[in-house]
Each structure stands twice: as structure tokens, then as C-alpha cells.
Amino acid sequence: MNWIFEPWPWYVAGPLIALIMFLLIFVGKQFGMSSNLRTMCTICGADKKADFFDFNWKDQRWNLMVVLGAIIGGFIAAQFLSTDAAAVAINPETVNKLQSMGIESAGKAYMPTELFGLGALTDIKSLAILLIGGLLIGFGARYAGGCTSGHAISGLSNLQLPSLIAVIGFFAGGLFMIHVLFPLIF
Amino acid sequence: MRTLSYLFIGIFFGIVMFKSEAASWFRIYEMFSFQSFHMYGIIGSALVIGIVGIQLIKRNNIKSFYGEPIKFTPKDRGVSRYLYGGLIFGLGWALAGACPGPIYTLIGAGYLPILVVLIGSLLGTFLYGLLRKKLPH
After folding, report:
1. How distant, in Å, are the alpha carbons of A7, A16, A80, B29, B111 from that of A75?
2. Rounded CA separation A85/A78 (Å)
3. Of A23, A51, A140, B114, which one is least surrounded by beta carbons within 10 A?
């Protein structure tokens, strides 16, 4: 059973993600995580400001249960199914690159402590990175009508051309961020 | 009962996101640096199984667990919204190192600063709702 505590390889994780998509299809729903952000906006009263949020959010309660589950699942995995450090063994070249950019925790942690340690909450630059990152994720996902789950997994599995365009956009944006903007940010 | 099934699927999803390290900022950076096959393997293998499975469901008219027909809604046609929206999403995905699913997973895993990403993504969604009619779709 030791394998559970090790990181799961791609050939285990990928098929399990497909299984999750099929489980949702077989209970009459679909796999898409970013639409919950719209639901949460509506619950917070955004429907009074823009008609985009004027919909019956109760129809989306099932997806909020998936979100609650994902939170609980993250807790279970981190607390009970991982070793203490859970350091992510990324490519040593990537580690060197990140350390030269000042991200010293590369290769030693699950998340960069520079951005996701408690110290980040009192560091203006880290806060700005997290907040702007979030803004782009939320705005872009709704503009594109889906995120990694809705387009890259569900949409491409159903051979949807719009999803292919969106996924090309995801990668073009990600590559631009890391290769062009990161040297300016870090 | 159905509500519980959504909860359990979510728990399963959260565990897979964390244990596969797809929720790790480092894995996203490594993916965009083309220095590991890991993330491509995850997305690629999910996709191959997904494509085959959905074709099987469609061709054999397989019903849901509740005996209902399974409907696949095609995405609306268009280019602009998918391209521009995708680009913006990709910038955020690489910067915060998380997409919406892992954001929830990381909250449970106890990385509190991810809440700032969640607040940002709610604001971003709200901003899109406000500007939607002015944007090319």
C-alpha cells in the first residue's frame, strides 16, 4: 500500500481524471469547475449588478457539492495520504532555473513557500501575484466558457473545435507568462 | 443520495488532483518549460480515454445510471471568445500555478494564500459579467 503515499504517476492520474469525467456524465452532469465561480458570484448578489449572473443558481448546487468534495479531498490527501514534506520531484534543471529566480523552495516542497507559505500573506509582491493570477483565471475562464476541466478534458474529449481553440489559447498564454513575463516579475 | 454522490466524486477528484501533483505550482511551471512529460501524460491519457469513452456512449446510446439518455451539448461556435479568453486564462494559470479545480483542492490541503487566488478569480468572473457585452465573442 506504500504507493498511495508516493506521488501518483501520470498513467494512474490521467485515467482517474477520465473516470471522474465519466462518473459525472453517468450521473447526468458534466465535468467543469470554473462555472462554480459564476454560481458563487450570484450567491454573493452579483445578479443585481449584471444580468450574466441572473440565473437560477440552485440548479448548480450539485457542482458546489463537487467543490466541497474537492476541498475535503485535498485535506484527506495532504493529511493522510502523503509523507510530511510531499516535495515535488520536478526536473533538476527546472529546480536550478527556479532557484536562480529566487524560488529557493523548488524541489523541496509541494508548493513554493515564497508564494504559498503564510509569509506570502504579508508580502505585497506575493499578494499581487496571487490576486492578479486569480483575476486572470476567473476572467479568462468565463470569457472562454470553461477552464482545464471544461475545455481541455470535457470539450476535447467530445471533439469540440471551440475547446481546441481555447486550449491553444491556454498554452499560448501560459508560455508567454513563463518565458516572457516571468523574467520581468521574478 | 444523489447529493452524496456528487460529494464523493468531488472528494475523489480532490485526492487525484493533490496526489498526481497537478495541483502543484511547480508542476505547472515545469509543464510550460517543457521539462517533464508528467502533466502532458496526465492530460493526454485522460483525453485518449475520454475520446474513446464518449464515442462508445454516443454510438451505443448508453444510458446514465438513472436510465436517462446522455446528452452532450456542443459548444457555441466562434473563435474570438475562445482565443482571447483562453489566452487570458493561460496567463493566470501559469502565474498562480493553479486552475479552478486545484484551487479548491489546495484550500483543503491548507495552503491559505490560495484563498487570495480564489478571491481574485471571483473578482475576475464578476468583472467578466460586467464587461461581457463590450467584449468580442
Report:
1. 16, 19, 8, 23, 10
2. 10
3. A51
What are the grid coordinates assigned to A15, written together? 485515467
> Cell for A35?
462555472
User: Cα separation of B83 and A177, whole Å?
Assistant: 16
The residues, any chain, with a CB within 8 Å of residue A24's CB and separated by 6 or more, are A30, A31, A66, B9
Spatial separation of the C-alpha atoms in residues A183 and B9, rounded to whole Å: 39
- In B, which residues are within 8 Å of A99 by CB distance? none
User: For residue B40, what are the β-bridge partners?
Assistant: none
CA distance B21 to B66: 33
Distance from first CA to last CA of chain A, Å, rounded?
40
Q: Count Cβ atoms below 10 Å from residue B33 Cβ, excluding itself.
A: 18
Rounded Cα distance, A186 and B9, in Å: 38
Q: Is the ipTM of this complex over 0.85?
A: yes
Q: d(Cα A74, Cα A72) in Å, to the nearest integer?
A: 5
Alpha carbon separation from B1 to A21, B6, B90 (Å, rounded): 19, 9, 37
Q: What is the pLDDT of residues A20-58, one digit of tens each?
A: 999 999 999 999 999 999 999 999 999 999 999 999 999
Nearest C-alpha of chain A: how many angstroms from B59? 13
A159 neighbors A144 (Cβ within 8 angstroms)? no
Quick one: cell of A42?
450570484
The helix-helix angle for A92-100 and B25-32 (nearest 10°) equals: 100
Cβ <8 Å between B9 and A137: no
**Chain B contact set for A58 (CB, 8 A):** none
User: Is A108:B48 a contact under the CB 8 Å cutoff?
Assistant: no
Output the pTM of the full model.
0.96
User: pLDDT, tens digit, for every residue of B65-101?
Assistant: 999 999 999 999 999 999 999 999 999 999 999 999 9
B83–A134 CB contact, under 8 Å:
no
Coil/strand/helix, residue A172: helix
